[in-house]
């Protein structure tokens, strides 16, 4: 039996209840996003959200979102979230979602920022393999658990140096 093909497409309003349920399951100790947060993210014109599915129109098994902020020739991107249903981890879904978001950033030659729990070795390794490096630490970033986060940065794909005023939004 062959593995199902992975489909990456746009996250839709119809996907919100499932995403909110996955949030409760995966991030219970760190203020999972309610449905209203997903609606707000999808409503923002500067955000791009992706869904991972095993078939077109199927259930969401992973999701990710990135914002593009600033002005032309000085854009920066921030990854808001990337999550994969625990039942589907270890299949490269997170990597595929990350690559979809990096395509958004590369299209505008933007640096990419994100926060990741300091104890999330799997995610840190994934980000490092895609050109991210640790730029700082945010103490007690995740609430209410109080877990720390690394701020990680990937420079623009062109290698364009960051302007001194550029930094995490």
UniProtKB/TrEMBL annotation:
- Name the domain of life this protein comes from: Bacteria
Q: What is its EC number?
A: 2.3.1.266
Sorted alphabetically, which keywords does the UniProt record give?
Acyltransferase, Ribonucleoprotein, Ribosomal protein, Transferase
Q: Which Pfam families match?
A: Acetyltransf_1 (PF00583)
Give all residue intervals belonging to the N-acetyltransferase domain.
Answer: 6-157
Entry GO terms, CC: ribosome
Q: Which InterPro entries match?
A: AcTrfase_RimI/Ard1, Acyl_CoA_acyltransferase, Bact_Acetyltransf, GNAT_dom
What are the GO MF terms of this UniProt record?
A: protein-N-terminal-alanine acetyltransferase activity
Show the stretches that span the lipid bilayer: none
> Which PANTHER family does the entry mention?
AMINOALKYLPHOSPHONATE N-ACETYLTRANSFERASE-RELATED, AMINOALKYLPHOSPHONATE N-ACETYLTRANSFERASE-RELATED-RELATED
- The protein here is known as Ribosomal protein S18-alanine N-acetyltransferase
Q: Which organism is it from?
A: Gordonia westfalica
